[in-house]
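Hi R.,

As promised on Friday, here is the backbone we talked about, encoded as structure tokens. Could you run it through your design pipeline when you get a chance and send me back a sequence?
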């Protein structure tokens, strides 16, 4: 573009900013297969990546030394992310037990899941390589994307979730979803990021990619929300209460509302969680109507006591 931009390389993601401490305006995901960096003449760098779609960046460094430094750092990051992803994909190939939620009734069933066909199929059955005829599979080349958390209709229709929100994720296909939950931090980390990588290679969609740092932050958010809800509070109100309690324990006293550090934004949140509405049955409605009727009669009698008899008789005739 010819504009001067700032780049931050962290966790396999090259973040693009307009200022050193500004918000991200773009990102290059180096963890995907096919990412490359090339050092060109005149302190130029060429970066190519394929996720979430084919992209190419031409960057001009201020000096040859700076260009070489960035080239070596980006190349090392790509190599590190590829090795890390190979470890995750090995766990997917070995497979593990997960809960599959049924779309028709949102009930869950326990199945063993694994990937096959060089990462192009996700299979499940009572055991790996189930030969009883119960094994099923989906083609990841038909997958549109993957989302983290209990976000789909199948999860939302559950009256009570048996799995924590941070263990859930869904694969999106045309006209359907595959909704899963896996126990354990290591397993959900491997399955979500590993499947996201496979879908970005073989799938038909181009959904935004969630970096490892973003995934961890979202997982922590889900865990904090679960703790807040167990206290009957929304997350914002729970965090404020915890900050106030910590301040009181340190003898800081009650001050102004806490703010996000460095942002000047006041932390606000709702109060207690909303309670379900109670529907009145027919008998309750009739009883309520009778009570309202008796209240009106008493009010008429009280009014009759404060007005003269002639006016009272006239009002009775009008009624």
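Update: got your reply. Pasting your designed sequence below so it's all in one thread:
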């Amino acid at each position: 573009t010819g504009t001067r931009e700032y780049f931050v390389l962290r966790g396999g993601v090259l973040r693009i900013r307009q200022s050193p401490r500004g918000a991200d305006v773009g990102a290059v995901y180096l963890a995907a297969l096919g990412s490359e960096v090339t050092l060109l003449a005149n302190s130029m760098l060429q970066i190519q990546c394929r996720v979430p779609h084919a992209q190419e960046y031409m960057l001009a460094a201020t000096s040859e030394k700076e260009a070489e430094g960035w080239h070596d750092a980006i190349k090392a990051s790509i190599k590190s992310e590829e090795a890390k992803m190979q470890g995750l994909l090995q766990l997917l190939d070995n497979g593990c037990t997960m809960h599959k939620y049924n779309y028709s009734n949102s009930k869950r069933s326990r199945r063993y899941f694994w990937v096959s066909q060089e990462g192009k199929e996700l299979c499940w059955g009572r055991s790996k390589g189930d030969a009883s005829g119960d094994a099923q599979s989906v083609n990841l080349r038909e997958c549109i994307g993957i989302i983290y958390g209990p976000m789909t209709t199948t999860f939302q229709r559950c009256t009570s979730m048996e799995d924590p929100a941070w263990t859930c994720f869904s694969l999106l296909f045309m006209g359907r979803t595959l909704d899963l939950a896996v126990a354990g931090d290591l397993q959900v980390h491997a399955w979500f990021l590993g499947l996201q990588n496979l879908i970005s290679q073989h799938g038909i969609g181009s959904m935004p990619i969630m970096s490892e740092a973003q995934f961890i932050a979202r997982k922590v958010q889900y865990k904090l929300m679960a703790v807040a809800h167990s206290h009957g509070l929304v997350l914002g109100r729970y965090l404020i209460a915890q900050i106030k309690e910590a301040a009181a324990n340190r003898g800081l006293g009650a001050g102004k509302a806490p703010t996000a550090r460095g942002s000047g934004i006041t932390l606000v949140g709702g109060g207690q969680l909303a309670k379900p509405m109670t529907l009145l049955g027919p008998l309750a409605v009739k009883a309520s109507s009778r009570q309202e009727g008796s209240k009106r009669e008493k009010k008429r009698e009280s009014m009759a006591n404060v007005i003269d008899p002639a006016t009272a008789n006239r009002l009775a005739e009008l009624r």
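One thing I noticed while checking it: Confidence is low (pLDDT under 50) at residues 260-268.

Thanks again,
M.
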